[in-house]
Amino acid sequence: MTRVFTARRIITMNPALPSGEAVAIRDGRILAVGTLEEVQGWDPEAPVDETFADKVLTPGFIEAHSHVMAGGMWTMPYVGFFDRRDPKGKVWPGCQSLETVIERLIEAEAEMGDDLTDPLVAWGLDPIYFDDERLLAPHLDRVSESRPILIFHASGHLATVNSAMLARHEIDADATTPGVDKDGDGNPTGELQEPPAMRLARSGMAKLGSRLGTEEAMWNYAAESRNAGHTLVTDLGTSQLTEPDQLERWSRVVNDPEYPCRAVVAMSSAFGGPSDPAVWAEFSKELPDHETDKLRFGIVKLMLDGSIQGFTARVSAPHYYRPPEGHPGNGLWLIAPDQFASILETYHRAGLTVHVHCNGDEATEVFLDAMEEVLTAYPRPDHRHTVQHCQLAKPHQYRRMAAMGMCANIFANHIFYWGDQHRDLTMGPERAAGMDACATALRAGVPTSIHSDAPVTPMGHLHTAWCAVNRVTASGEVLGPDERISVEEALAAITIGAAFQLKLDHDIGSIEAGKLADFAVLEEDPLTVDPMTLKDIGVWGTILGGVPFPAAS
Question: Same structural domain for residues 138 and 186?
Fold first, then answer.
């Protein structure tokens, strides 16, 4: 059956036909787009649905870097700095002081049962906003001296635990794991930096992990994406696909007709699972049997360094601008640089697409050097290996990416959420102005997308595009005006650019005949509003495969 939707405007992201007023859909795919008369030529008897006659349709937004934990986190207390809307539409006020964080944790602990072995786990903390005051074990001991507590930071690269958690898992002065922060006397402060150190707090991380791969997390993840106009999300490296039932759980949930988005699920050992690349490469051979139009695989996520705002990313000289007292001067390597080319080679030769977390420019350089070595030995056209985050990538590094056929997925949201801190604390004014350099990437000819890294920042590509277009920080300052891009370029990054990066641009990313009928339904036209109001455009919901899914009110 053919169905026709009309709209105030349809933005296609197809340069051959940039806009239309009607779209015809048959069997979940686009039959035609253009004027109402043109699309009715395919089926003059097709019913015309005017539900969206006063709305604007764009290709469904594509989030190429987020995590299913964005859905699972909402089963635990939120203690982030900014107000945040949950998948059901409720707004949680931000905790804008450490005292407010502690008060919310005390309330949460009081609601728990009498079993003091059950850890309190909360999320979203970022102490960089608190005038250099860090949340350490003594702060959390005010919440409870007997119940273990773990607070997962917004970056996902750090956690803070209380003394009860340190004692429970014998994390003491003898701990040798990199990332266990210690005071001047050599005793742990409670801050655990990067996954190897965080995993020492086993009970807290186990409880966190138990919430992240559940069906509830997957449904919350989709609801949050639908609310923001997304029709595809990428779980980049938090699902343990080799665990019993996890692969079947993804298949069962995503392929449910009521599930309101598509998903790409990447493989990774960053948060557990096999560490041998050969094991993953062999396992990947099973994944095509589980693929559908709604569920895809084929990506490997690797992590080279940490977080800039957590001072654990690897940055080149002059390194960090104003690091915390006792900081070693640079960040942590999560994979040894001299081992990286060998790891990359295994995945590359297996035909997989490799996406590598590179916040610092030192990490980017290691990836590029390894990529050059591997491609020289094993040429492979159209690999689309991708540098993820690209926080400090430099112009010459973007030129190398372009020369090697690589993609860049840039963390544009950082400009708003941490731009002031990068200017004043982590990188200094000059380097902060060149962070998340979307304009430089496009000038170099690198296929580019932008992302939220949800739950690190909230999923919502209108805000992500707003950040790339305006580069306005939380304090209202413009950071690096010459790296601003146009609204049309930003829309391309969150639609056809992201689709290309995921090797799905033949199916999604633009509104044109033959592609899946996936649209974002907007209240205003992003190409005609004041660019400073881009993030404020209302989202009615989405259309997925021709089926409307209204957002939660």
Answer: yes
